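Let's inspect a concrete specimen:
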Amino acid sequence: MTKIPMGTTRPASNPWLTITDGDWTTKVLRAYSTKPDAPYARWLCEVTPQGSPFSDVGDTYIRDIDGRIVQIDPSVPNEALPSRWQDLGSEPHDYGQYCECDDCGRIDGTHDLTVEH
């Protein structure tokens, strides 16, 4: 049996990755599939509206999550992400590293992976 990357459940205080779209923050707590681009692939997520102290935890189809990755655990392999988010890191700014550049708009000390260097 193939091991599922992000296949163990994590607490919301230490998610596998965090995605934001400006209105919502999604913290990925667990993956259920080795094929994140499959139509019904899903993640266990904590979803919080911006500015709210309340959140909801439950399964979410990966295809329904929009936004940009603002935090990712360095142990998450590229193939564990949907193709739209793969290969966003670049040397020397890799996933999970603190970036010193002025272009990023850093969030919690994590490199903004949407900015090309």
Residues 20 and 117 are 21 Å apart (CA to CA). The longest strand covers residues 24-31. The chain has one domain: 9-117.
